[in-house]
């Protein structure tokens, strides 16, 4: 499923190995590994986490456009609890970095449940239902931040993004932990089966007793949780929460990573590993463009080409057209 | 109540009542609100959003979506500004180039969607990335437009009674709006769009050229977005690559608030105008209020959007009930 993405990822990395001397060099300093590869992994973590949640959502035949806005909300909640900015709802209390992570994650789950209720109970189309928080979410985040960029200084919370464990930065571990948890959840329990059943044929799965409503509610809540974690990481990294720009357009990157990773966009079939490979591919392209000194806007154009390419490769009518053109070849 | 009344007339009636209620409420709170001047400004301030939303209405009527319109606004405004500023083209020529660019992008998107059945949401997402990337490549900074013809158009306005006036973008918006109503109601193209939204398969069986109509719909949407970019350039006398960021969401919100069903087939251009005015009134009222910050606009628009989606859902449920009732 994700062989194409993996092949392109390897090709991009090899291109860098040839063109940028020292790209594959890893050095150990103060018990921490440094190098371009670690940098790619570290920077891919937020989109990687988003794409894990997005994978399950897309596998049920839905989509979650609100993850970028949820990142902003979660980041603002965490920063607000630490910095207690004046004029915001957090004003007054003692700085409580201990609450930042649980309440930040909690805000993401609440937002995800809101999406889930709209989609599973009220049966709104996922694109439309999540569009709602995409529009209003940043407004809510700004309300929570009283329109400011909330800056703070807290070594403990910043460590979430800045510290390292066993040589690798924490975000990398969080991304891998996310993969492990989601992998176990979907492959070791029946949740994965339920998700695929809901996505491939909701009516048939209802007849065999799958509670599609509960499945949908769960995947959107999980997507909100992943988004919140991604938001906390980016907030901890820069020690500031920017309601306007945190996670801006990252929902699109996550959808792109998922589709590149071989998850069927119509639902029913998914690959968590593929999505992470997709996220790594996008980040390694961005890194390549930056290290080659090409204008960073080129990344956007490349992404556009990849979306269209991947969609075409997945489209049956395109495969048929290609097969007809090149007679003997099987696609 | 029959089905077409429920799906066709009721949403727009609700939107119209909400709009009137909002205007009256704002008028009671702020004595200066109910003046021709405020209403004329409402049109000027929302002209580019309006043109974009009118184009988007057609796409949504087919059951599709176009996420590229916001970035197209930015691209078109920066291309126009660059052509006038650096290449010293006449503004009318620059405008034509911008619109052509929109047509080409729309045709490419429409082709991928209609020919290969790719999801509109993803294809136009690619369009969003492409436009944004190209626009930022052209210029990251806002480009001032300084041209006698351009200044003349920007400076001109149609005087109205009560010290009010109608700017050129506002009039152009009304013109586009009129043309769009004509297209939707009086042309074969418009009727085919509604038929596709009702069901692409049955439209094909009726002998309608679904593929060509779909391509044309996306071309129309992109041209409207490009024209929106030109209006933005007129409105601000400059081009800016990021000017349309997030505009696609406002435009979708306007279309939905205007009573067009996102599943396609039902809705109207008039509704979209009402949707635009509703958003505009909310924005203006929040500005008048003074103490409320601008982010309240997004929250109120989100709440309105939610309310209208729930209304749509209820209408659909009622329509399918009355549909079955009629069948028996």
Looking at the overall shape, the CATH architecture of chain B is Orthogonal Bundle
SSE class of chain A: mainly alpha
Beta-strand segment tally of chain B: 4
Strand line-up of the largest beta sheet of chain B: 1-4
The 3D shape of chain B can be described as globular
Alpha carbon gyration radius of chain B? 20 Å
Mean pLDDT of chain B: 88
N-end to C-end Cα span of chain B: 15 Å
| Order of H and E elements of chain B | HHHHHHEHEEHHHHEHHH
Helical content of chain B, roughly? Answer: over 70%
Average pLDDT confidence of chain A is 89
CATH class of chain B: Mainly Alpha
Question: How many helical stretches of chain B?
Answer: 14
Number of strands of chain A: 6
Cα-atom radius of gyration of chain A: 20 Å
Describe this structure in words.
The complex is a heterodimer of chains A (331) and B (328). Chain A has 14 helices and 6 strands. Chain A is mainly alpha-helical and 331 residues long. Chain A has 2 domains: 3-281, no CATH class; 295-331, no CATH class. In chain A, strands 1-2 form a two-stranded antiparallel ribbon. In chain A, strand 4 and strand 5 form a beta hairpin. The longest helix of chain A has 27 residues, at 212-238. The radius of gyration of chain A is 20 Å and the shape is globular. With 328 residues, chain B is mainly α. Chain B has a single domain (3-327), classed as ABC transporter involved in vitamin B12 uptake, BtuC (Orthogonal Bundle), CATH 1.10.3470. Chain B is built from 14 helices and 4 strands. Chain B has helices at residues 3-29, 36-45, 47-61, 69-85, 91-116, 120-138, 148-155, 168-186, 188-198, 200-205, 210-236, 247-257, 269-289, 295-327; strands at 143-144, 157-160, 164-167, 238-239. In chain B, a hairpin with a 3-residue loop joins strand 2 and strand 3. In chain B, helix 2 (36-45) crosses helix 8 (168-186) and helix 8 crosses helix 9. The two termini of chain B are 15 Å apart. The mean pLDDT of chain B is 88. The A-B interface holds A 63, 118, 122-125, 127-129, 131-140, 142-143, 147, 243, 252, 255-256, 259, 265, 295, 297-301, 303-305, 307-308, 311-312, 315-318, 321 and B 65, 112, 115-119, 121-123, 125-130, 132-134, 136-137, 140, 249-250, 252-253, 256, 262-263, 293, 295-299, 301-303, 305-306, 309-310, 313.
């Amino acid at each position: 499923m994700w062989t194409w993405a993996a092949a392109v990822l390897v090709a991009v990395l090899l291109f860098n190995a040839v063109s940028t001397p020292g790209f594959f060099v890893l050095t150990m300093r103060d018990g921490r590994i440094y190098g371009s590869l670690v940098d790619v992994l570290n920077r891919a973590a937020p989109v990687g986490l988003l794409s894990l949640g997005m994978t399950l959502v897309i596998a049920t035949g839905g989509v979650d456009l609100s993850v970028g806005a949820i990142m902003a909300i979660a980041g603002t909640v965490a920063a607000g609890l630490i910095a207690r900015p004046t004029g915001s709802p957090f004003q007054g209390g003692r700085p409580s970095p201990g609450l930042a992570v649980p309440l930040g994650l909690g805000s993401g789950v609440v937002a995800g449940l809101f999406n889930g209720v709209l989609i599973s109970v009220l049966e709104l189309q996922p694109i439309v239902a999540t569009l709602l928080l995409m529009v209003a979410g940043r407004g809510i985040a700004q309300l929570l931040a009283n329109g400011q960029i909330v800056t703070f200084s807290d070594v403990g919370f910043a460590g979430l993004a800045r510290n390292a464990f066993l040589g690798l930065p924490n975000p990398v571990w969080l991304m891998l932990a996310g993969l492990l948890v989601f992998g176990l959840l979907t492959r070791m329990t029946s949740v994965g089966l339920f998700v695929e059943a809901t996505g491939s044929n909701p009516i048939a799965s209802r007849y065999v007793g799958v509670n599609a409503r509960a499945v949908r509610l769960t995947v959107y809540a999980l997507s909100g949780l992943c988004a919140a974690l991604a938001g906390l990481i980016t907030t901890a990294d820069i020690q500031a929460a920017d309601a306007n720009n945190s996670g801006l357009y990252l929902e699109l990157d996550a959808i792109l990573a998922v589709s590149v990773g071989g998850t069927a966009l119509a639902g029913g079939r998914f690959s968590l590993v593929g999505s992470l490979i997709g996220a790594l591919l996008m980040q390694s392209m961005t890194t390549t463009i930056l290290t080659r000194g090409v204008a960073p806007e080129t990344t956007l154009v490349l992404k556009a080409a990849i979306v269209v390419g991947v969609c075409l490769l997945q489209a049956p009518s395109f495969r048929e057209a290609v097969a007809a053109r090149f007679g003997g070849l099987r696609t | 109540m029959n089905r077409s009344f429920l799906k066709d007339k009721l949403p727009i009636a609700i939107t119209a009542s909400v709009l009137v209620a909002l205007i009256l409420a704002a008028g009671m709170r702020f004595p200066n609100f109910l003046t021709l001047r405020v209403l004329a400004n409402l049109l000027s301030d929302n002209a580019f959003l309006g043109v974009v939303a009118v184009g988007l209405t057609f796409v949504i009527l087919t059951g599709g979506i176009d996420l590229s319109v916001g970035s197209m606004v930015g691209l078109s405004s920066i291309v126009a500004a660059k052509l006038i500023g650096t290449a010293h083209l006449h503004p009318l020529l620059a405008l034509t180039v911008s619109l052509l660019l929109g047509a080409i992008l729309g045709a490419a998107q429409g082709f991928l969607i209609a020919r290969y059945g790719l999801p509109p949401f993803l294809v136009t997402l690619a369009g969003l990335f492409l436009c944004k990337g190209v626009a930022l490549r052209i210029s990251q900074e806002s480009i001032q437009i300084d041209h006698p013809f351009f200044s003349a158009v920007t400076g001109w306005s149609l005087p109205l009674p009560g010290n009010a006036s109608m700017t050129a973008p506002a009039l152009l918006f009304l013109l586009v709006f009129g043309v769009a109503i004509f297209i939707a109601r009086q042309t074969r193209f418009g009727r085919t769009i509604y038929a596709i939204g009702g069901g692409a398969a049955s439209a094909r069986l009726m002998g309608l050229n679904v593929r060509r109509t779909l391509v044309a719909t996306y071309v129309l949407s992109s041209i409207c977005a490009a024209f929106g970019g030109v209006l933005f350039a007129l409105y601000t006398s400059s081009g800016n690559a990021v000017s349309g960021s997030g505009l696609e969401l406002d435009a979708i919100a306007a279309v939905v608030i205007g009573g067009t069903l996102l599943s396609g087939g039902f809705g109207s251009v008039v509704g979209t105008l009402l949707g635009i005015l509703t958003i505009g009134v909310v924005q203006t009222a929040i500005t008048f209020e003074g103490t409320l910050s601008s982010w309240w606009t997004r929250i109120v628009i989100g709440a309105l959007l939610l309310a209208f989606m729930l209304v749509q859902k209820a209408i659909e449920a009622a329509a399918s009930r009355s549909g079955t009732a009629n069948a028996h």
